[in-house]
Design goal:
Chain B: Keywords: Mitochondrion, Ribonucleoprotein, Ribosomal protein. Chain B: Its main location: mitochondrion. Chain B: Belongs to the universal ribosomal protein uL29 family. Chain B: One of its GO terms (molecular function) is structural constituent of ribosome. Chain B: Residues 233-259 are annotated as: Disordered. The complex is a heterodimer of chains A (154) and B (259). Chain A has 154 residues and is α+β, with helices and mostly antiparallel strands. Chain A is 18% helix and 17% strand. Chain A has 2 helices and 4 strands, in the order ββαββα. In chain B, strand 1 and strand 2 form a beta hairpin. Helices cover 49% and strands 4% of the residues of chain B. Chain B is extended. Chain B has 259 residues and is mostly helical. Chain B has a two-stranded antiparallel ribbon with strand order 1-2. Chain A binds chain B through residues 1, 3, 7, 9-10, 12, 21-23, 26-31, 41, 44, 61-64, 106, 109-115, and chain B through 72-74, 76-77, 79-82, 87-89, 112, 115-116, 119-120, 122-123, 126-132, 134-135, 137, 149-150, 153, 155-156, 159, 177, 195-198.
């Protein structure tokens, strides 16, 4: 679903502040690769966003008090090659390190905790699991053969 | 507290609910959002399966939907993640995406609010996707991203439709951005869309290098290009004719579609 290129109005001294309705920018909160101070949150942002944009975005949409924002552009590698030996470019992206104000801290949570996968009694999943186990048991060879495959006679 | 996020979840992905309603604690597929606002947050958490059922049964028609109201969320950075109950799940239930037909029934304020709800949901899903790649695990229900993107795209089209309608009524202009038909150097005529500059065009050196006219020495090239195009068209037409005559030979009673 392509979005047509937006043209922002030209700014000259004395113009009113540009306001953007329905921003088309998406921030991705990422786990930091290197250890960051407790008040720093790491985001991947689109290349067109500036530090002020990120600050306003977080403050207005997420009500997060933002202290300082530092950005850098991460170069996406152009080294890999496909089966035709053409270079494949990984897209570039901007990384923003946002420091929260008012002494708030943030630690990246564990979003994939180990969950006990036993299905409850009488449910579809339990029946499916039982069926799969039975099938596997049927496919297995006689344990008295000691791991020898069926190819060998006797 | 969680209601706003669940409202968000519902809003983003609700359209019409299907028959069987296995409602997980977090996401319901529902039609009417008004009932959500009436429920207090803590009540919603506890009685979610039953409450949802009691909401859902009488509500089935579009006309019963009222204006959308969402509370200002106070969760901050937690909104970049799903509800904690869904962490580690393999499948997270979500409803159908918004259709343009459905969005056209909503007011402008509702669409504006919905845009931000969808935006936050998309941010959450992107963060989840990146984290799943980092942990080398599968993201639960990746189809949610497509649903949200399509809903946002349709919302944008609906808003654009309304803007064009208003512009046509008020000013009679069809296009929001002014433009003109221009010839470029190669002889092609195309719709050039105007761009804002701080200085007039005759002072703009880069603009003057673009040359919106076709020089005389390009005419032979244009002629050759035209000949090539006509030759290609003639070749295709004769190919079609040949195919049709061969088929007619083999199948004399064949009826050829008028093409």
């Amino acid at each position: 679903m392509p979005v047509t290129r937006l043209l922002y109005p030209l700014y000259q001294l004395g113009n009113p502040q540009l306001r953007i309705f329905r921003p088309n920018w998406f921030l991705t909160l990422v786990r930091p690769g290197k250890e960051q101070p407790p008040d720093t949150v790491q985001f991947r942002t689109p290349m067109e966003m500036t530090k002020y944009d990120i600050k306003n975005y977080l403050e207005n949409i997420y009500n997060v008090p933002v202290g300082a924002v530092r950005t850098r552009i991460q170069f996406g590698s152009n080294k890999k090659r496909n089966h035709r030996n053409q270079k494949i470019k990984q897209p570039d992206y901007k990384v923003a390190y946002v420091q929260l104000a008012q002494g708030q801290t943030f630690s990246f949570p564990d979003v994939f905790p180990e969950k006990d996968k036993t299905p409850e009694e009488g449910s579809m999943e339990e029946m499916k699991q039982k069926y799969m186990e039975d099938e596997e048991q049927r496919q297995k060879l006689d344990p008295r053969r000691g791991g020898v495959t069926d190819w060998f006679g006797l | 507290m969680a209601a706003s996020s669940s409202a968000g979840r519902v809003l983003t992905l609700c359209k019409q609910f299907q028959n069987v309603f296995r409602i997980s604690s977090a996401i319901n597929t529902k039609h009417c959002t008004a009932t959500l606002t009436r429920c207090q947050p803590h009540l919603y958490r506890e009685t979610s399966p039953l409450a949802a059922l009691s909401w859902c049964s009488p509500v089935s028609a579009v006309s019963q939907c009222r204006a959308l109201h969402t509370t200002v969320s106070r969760r901050g950075l937690d909104e970049f993640f799903d509800l904690p109950e869904n962490w580690g799940e393999e499948n997270v239930k979500s409803g159908a995406p918004w259709t343009a037909k459905h969005l056209r029934t909503k007011s402008n304020e509702d669409l504006h609010k919905l845009w931000y709800v969808l935006l936050k949901e998309k941010n959450m899903l992107l963060s989840l996707e990146q984290e799943s790649r980092r942990q080398r695990l599968q993201m639960p229900s990746p189809e949610r991203l497509k649903k949200v993107s399509r809903s946002m795209f349709r919302l944008e089209t609906v808003v654009k439709e309304r803007e064009t309608a208003l512009r046509l009524l008020q000013t009679g202009q069809e296009k929001g951005r002014p433009g003109a038909w221009r010839r470029n150097i190669f002889g092609y005529t195309y719709w050039y869309r105007y761009k804002e500059y701080a200085i007039p065009w005759y002072m703009n050196k880069r603009y003057k290098r673009k040359r919106f006219f076709t020089p005389k020495f390009v005419q032979p090239h244009i002629r050759l290009r035209l000949e090539k195009h006509l030759r290609g068209k003639a070749r295709e037409a004769s190919l079609q004719r040949g195919n049709r005559s061969k088929l007619k030979e083999k199948f004399p009673q064949m009826k050829v579609s008028a093409s």
